[in-house]
Amino acid sequence: MSDARLVVALMAAALTFDAASLRGQTSTLAIDSLLRRVHTLDSSLIVRSRALDSVRRSLIRAVPPVDVRRGAMQVRTTADLEPRVRTAVDSVAVLIERRGGASLAARVAAHVPLVARDSTRSIFGAVPVLSFASDTSGRWPSTTHRPIPASATSTEVADALAGMVEQFALQGVDSAFGAWIMVGRVPLRPARPSEAADGYIEIMTAESAALRRCQSGDKESCLDVLGVDSLPGARLARWYAPQDYRTLLRAVAPAREDSAAVAAWVRCREDRDEPACVVAATSLANDRVPTPLSATARVTFLREVLEAGGANAYERLVTTDGSVRTRLTEAAGMPLDTVVGRWRARISESRPERMRLRPGLIVASLGWTGALLGLALIRRGPWA
User: Fold this and answer.
1) Burial class (CB in 10 A: 0-12, 13-18, 19+), 301
2) Tens digit of pLDDT for each residue in 246-302?
3) d(CA 210, CA 242)
């Protein structure tokens, strides 16, 4: 009997030992499987990290080594571009001192623009250009000025940098004034001939009753269409007459929920139905009626304000509190009615040359007309 109990005890011990060994082997296999999984994930993470680093290197460039400074203006560039950039920075620094003063200098000093060589795609392949970034301190610097040809002169580089300075000049200004100017910059540079010509064409050709009154000398209407002051009444009645409605409806349509107004809008545009134009125009909500003038006209007016105000005009513009009219009046240092008169005179002087027929062009046109007519008469016999 004791032998039987001994055999049972030995068998139980053997089974217990085998179960413990099996559990140990199972745990070891589980740990090995987990380690293999960790190694696989680590390998995948390493591959993705290398791909991400490659993308970062392609997007984030090293800061160019050359530091060009003059006054508040500091630009980073490369050694081969330094002569052009240095001349450009000198020119822009003079603009800042002459037109901006301490307020603009403080805004400009907060940035370090970058000028570097780059390339852009075209139909003929990659084209070398000079690219501009507003700051080198950001991790992902963005270009804030269109690239210019790689062969650009120092004057063209200066113009690009001055465009950045005009954007810096609007930083920190309250949202009401920023919404009024619309273009995101303060016009510190003189107007280009093309810009002045575009402003002339817009103001002289826009179909708006308020603009016609402005051209006739009504300064209140001028300030109304410029968004400085608002005359009593709804926008449609203030800015447009019934003869302007068809042109107005090319730029805006009634709400699609108003099926009758949409049908009238279609008849107005396609059939020139004047009563339908009235129905469609009067259905527009007040905030959907577009202003007669674009942001270009406001830029030209603000430039006139700054010209009238002299050296400290920008300082007064950004440090004065109050409405847009108050800011502009303080910046100009004179009543806005006077500035409107100057602005209208400047617009009249900006009539583009392409709107004037040159005598040489007329003579050439007549010559070609005569030549073609003579050729037609000569060939008339054989063709008959």
Assistant:
1) buried
2) 999 999 999 999 999 999 999 999 999 999 999 999 999 999 999 999 898 999 999
3) 12
pLDDT at position 123: 79
Instruction: Kindly report the pTM of this predicted structure.
Output: 0.73
**Separation of alpha carbons 108 and 83, rounded Å:** 21
| Residue 26 pLDDT | 58
Quote the tokens at residue 127.
């084209």
State which residues of the chain have pLDDT below 70.
1-32, 39, 42, 47, 49-61, 137-145, 353-384
Angle between the N-to-C axes of helices 193-205 and 336-349, in degrees from 0 to 180, rounded to the nearest 10: 100
Q: How distant is the alpha carbon of residue 181 from its chain centre?
A: 13
For 293-335, the pLDDT digits (tens) are 989 899 999 999 999 999 899 999 999 999 999 999 999 999 9
Q: What's the rounded Cα separation, in Å, for the pair 125 and 135? A: 28
**Cα within 13 Å of Cα(242), Cβ side:** 8
- DSSP code at position 130: E
* Coil/strand/helix, residue 108: helix
Between the alpha carbon of residue 274 and those of residues 14, 242, 283, the distances in Å are 107, 8, 14
**For residue 286, what is the DSSP state?**
G
Q: Beginning with the edge strand found earlier in the chain, give each strand of the sheet holding 125-133 in spatial order.
A: 66-70, 73-77, 114-122, 125-133, 143-149
Residue among 84, 145, 81, 79 at smallest CA distance from 113: 145
Instruction: Give residue limits of the domains in the chain.
Output: 66-169, 193-353
Q: How far apart are CA 283 and CA 260, in angstroms?
A: 9
**267 touches 299 (CB < 8 A):** no
User: Residue 298: helix, strand or coil by DSSP?
Assistant: helix
Q: State the residue for tokens 């000079």.
A: 130
Question: Does residue 293 contact residue 203 with C-beta atoms inside 8 Å?
Answer: yes
Residues in the chain, total: 384
How many angstroms separate the CA atoms of 305 and 328, rounded? 7
Q: What pLDDT is attached to residue 383? A: 43
Candidates 343, 304, 91, 85; CA nearest to 186 is 304
